[in-house]
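Record type: monomer structure entry
Structure origin: computed from sequence
Chain ID: A
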Amino acid sequence: MSDNLDFVTIEEAARIVGKRPENIRDYIQRGRIGKYNEHGEIIRRAENGQLRVSLKEIRIFLSLVEQGLEKHHHAGLHPELGFYNVPEYQRTKHVHRLHPYLGKFIPQLVEWFLKRYFQPDNIILDPFMGSGTTLIQGNEMKMHTIGIDISAFDCLIARAKATKYDIAKARFEIMEIEQRVTVLSNYLAQSVGDSLLLFSEDDMEDLKERLLDECSSEYLRTWFAPRTLLEMLYYRQLIPEYQYQDLLRVLLSRAVRSSRLVPHYDLATPKAPLPVGEKYWCKKHNRYCIPIDNCITKIHAYSGDTVRRIAEFDKLRSNKTIKIIQADSRKVDLAAELVNTDIANCLIDGIFTSPPYVGQIDYHEQHIYAYELFGLPRLDELEIGPKKKGKTKQSQREYVLGIADVLRNILPLLKPNGKVFIVANDRFHLYPEIARLSGLRILDEFHRAVTNRTEQGDDPYQETIFFMMKENQYGAINRSD
């Protein structure tokens, strides 16, 4: 047997995993496992007696076959980075699920790289922050984190996740505002009960009229049932009375997202609102359903869930800095933004980020309900690589220049030996040019299967994590690492 216990001959592998040698050869031919030499190095062609296979790779593949997930496994994919056996509740642990977000990576991916390449007290930057996954996971690992994003709503989500709460007070505010909206909801549902012990019927009608008068959004009037609209508008009206307003806005936004007049199976990218009360065949529940006609059901469900999540993170968080900046990463003066923080005048140890993918998501549009509800400013025109611009050669070129502009702007604040990790679905092979334009050298690439994508189907999908460092440090890297 080989000196490296993981890399064995085909015959040895077959005996160890209980398969026939021809099964192992079939896995190789179908690209499910790789070919290696006796030193564990990937090879294309092996001399007689030199071919080895990885026991770890075979075992992972066989485990995926057993789970019906073998379509996600191909030779060359990192065996650990698919996180095949991580269940949904861990992929969305604590505040990572305060609000759904298309295009975010799972916290386990961030954790894997931060654990191996960085140390506590390091400073980690994410210039495409999104909903703040890197910031939260880095803080949990006792690192200072900085996030930049052009989207006002992304920054709202990240602030709600990152805030240090008085848990008892937050629980009280969340539950009280829910109870107050429930009074109106009961009246609207004609289950008056105790509602009119608190308000007269005239008061209720006046409240309804005021709420509708304040709603100038055609989108809100079109995509929500009448009762839903009134409940969410009343919740919005009450928010300024409380301390943790960002948290309440995110909670309400999450409930509103789930309360639109859309099919249950199409919450992520709905095309048009459904008529109120009209039945449709639901692929999610395999039966006829009707669109939701209220918001209080989701408010109730997410209120308890939100309290649980912030309390869970409160036990894990560190006292390290979390800095959230709403700005264009191509132009932001990062040093100025960090003044008056604990990490002012400090260089950054590393970058871990996932920029938008070319022509895949319109990031402002995916949260249109929140922008309309809260009147947040939209800066769609500053998005890099939006879906509406497509995947043409021109769009790809604009994308390359945009990402390179971001990196060139922030790299002066990166330590000379700072490490850069960029998660990308580089199907157009744009990142070598991005690295060149940015003054970076790609040192390594990690390829992973993306599985269990919430609301995005389960088709095979791959990502590359590029490991880069400053070009002028390449010689030092080779000598020291």
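Annotation 1: The chain has three domains: 7-58, 88-150+320-366+377-480, 167-259+294-310.
Annotation 2: The domain at 88-150+320-366+377-480 is CATH 3.40.50.150 (Rossmann fold).
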